[in-house]
């Protein structure tokens, strides 16, 4: 390329493009992913890069490629592109993607993560790894592949797909993610998502014993809890079935009020549900405006030291039952600031709810 000066309205994004070129991110993808499409001017992976630049530049649809990327020559050059494909041609490339093309992407992402991510280089001897598993719904047109009725937050009667993720919350890094049909819920995806995350961060048995898997109520079935125990994970799981939660909560004799949240209490379960390994169980209830007290149970294997560490509170020499219960409760609150914030930020910031293709592979 010539050494001419180029102006770009996306100066910080141009720096990202230069970093990606220096680290060989695009070359790593080319070594793993093959899309069978006739090459006229630009290769299929070049057009995928154009689509990525459009997303990072704030485009919520491929139709914006011509105005956000094609018109910004400086931004193209920062990413190593000498031109930009038409938005219709990029759309055709996405439609040419098949299931094998999709399956080729995780090894490329794994290679990139292991070369550059902080989660892969986590020091397990110093502190435990924290992996959050969650799913979020993406509304879509009913003619799309995998678009079915399912749970979509604040859109009960919509159809869509489900986006499952595993997030290394200590580093705000997505370890693995997968787009599923709308009927796939968290209780059917916990083991599959964590098995996909294990090679990415190289979770051997010894590392799994120092990894905390946190799962919300959607994945809190007995089968999921038993699977986590069988794989030697430390875990914190909210119980799914309301009857099980009611049974656990009835055995609580002392409730401790939360000083941070009004009308919220936590207490220790005394009649424990038995599992293959020893667990600790507690109950939480919040008072609604109508005076009712909905509740849920939480099953975990964490020690007092681990609970205080996750809550980022100073360790006490001889903590009381109330102090430990509140530490566990406030540690749970930090989960919403990890995976749930990541899901919302990614979905809204990248416009995922407005970026749909009829074909699931696309």
Defining traits:
362 residues, elongated, alpha+beta, 2 domains, Transposase Inhibitor Protein From Tn5, Chain A, domain 1, ten-stranded mixed beta sheet, 17% strand
Secondary structure: elements and pairs:
Layout: H1 11-23, H2 25-32, H3 44-56, H4 65-68, H5 73-78, H6 87-95, H7 99-116, E1 129-139, E2 148-149, E3 159-168, E4 173-180, H8 190-201, H9 205-208, E5 211-215, H10 222-230, E6 234-238, H11 242-250, E7 256-257, E8 264-268, E9 280-286, E10 295-300, H12 304-310, H13 321-349
Parallel strand pairs: 1-5, 5-6
Antiparallel strand pairs: 1-3, 2-3, 3-4, 6-10, 7-8, 8-9, 9-10
Helix pairs in contact: 2-7, 3-6, 12-13
How large is the radius of gyration? Answer: 23 Å
Structural class: alpha+beta
Mean of residue pLDDT values: 87
Distance between the termini: 32 Å
Uncertain runs: none
Number of domains: 2
Tally of alpha and pi helices = 13
Rough outline: elongated
Helical fraction equals 25-40%
CATH class of the largest domain: Alpha Beta
Strand content: 15-25%
Give me the strand/helix succession: HHHHHHHEEEEHHEHEHEEEEHH
């Amino acid at each position: 390329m010539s050494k001419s000066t180029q102006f770009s309205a996306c100066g910080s994004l141009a720096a990202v493009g230069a970093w990606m070129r220096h680290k060989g991110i695009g070359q790593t993808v080319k070594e793993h992913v093959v899309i069978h499409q006739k090459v006229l001017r630009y290769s299929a992976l070049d057009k995928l890069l154009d689509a990525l630049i459009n997303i990072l530049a704030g485009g919520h649809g491929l139709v914006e490629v011509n105005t956000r990327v094609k018109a910004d020559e400086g931004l193209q050059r920062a990413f190593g592109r000498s031109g930009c494909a038409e938005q219709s041609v990029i759309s055709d490339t996405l439609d040419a993607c098949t299931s094998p093309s999709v399956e080729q992407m995780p090894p490329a992402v794994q290679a990139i993560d292991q070369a550059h991510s902080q989660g892969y280089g986590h020091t397990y001897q110093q502190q435990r790894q924290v992996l959050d598993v969650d799913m979020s719904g993406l509304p879509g047109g009913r003619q799309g592949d995998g678009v079915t009725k399912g749970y979509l937050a604040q859109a009960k009667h919509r159809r869509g797909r489900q986006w499952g993720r595993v997030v290394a919350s200590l580093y705000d890094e997505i370890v693995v993610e997968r787009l599923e049909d709308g009927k796939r819920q968290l209780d059917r995806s916990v083991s599959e998502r964590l098995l996909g995350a294990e090679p990415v961060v190289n979770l051997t048995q010894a590392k799994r014993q120092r990894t905390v898997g946190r799962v919300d109520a959607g994945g809190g079935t007995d089968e999921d809890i038993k699977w986590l125990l069988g794989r030697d994970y430390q875990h914190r799981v909210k119980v799914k079935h309301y009857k099980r939660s009611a049974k656990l909560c009835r055995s609580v004799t002392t409730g401790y009020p939360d000083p941070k949240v009004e009308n919220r209490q936590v207490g220790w379960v005394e009649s424990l549900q038995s599992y293959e390994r020893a667990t600790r169980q507690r109950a939480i209830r919040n008072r609604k405006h109508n005076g009712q007290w909905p509740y849920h149970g939480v099953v975990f294997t964490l020690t007092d030291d681990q609970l205080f560490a996750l809550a980022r509170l100073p360790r006490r020499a001889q903590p009381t039952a109330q102090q430990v219960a509140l530490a566990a409760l406030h540690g749970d609150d930090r989960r919403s600031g990890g995976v749930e914030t990541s899901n919302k930020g990614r979905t809204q910031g990248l416009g995922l709810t407005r970026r749909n293709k009829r074909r699931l592979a696309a």
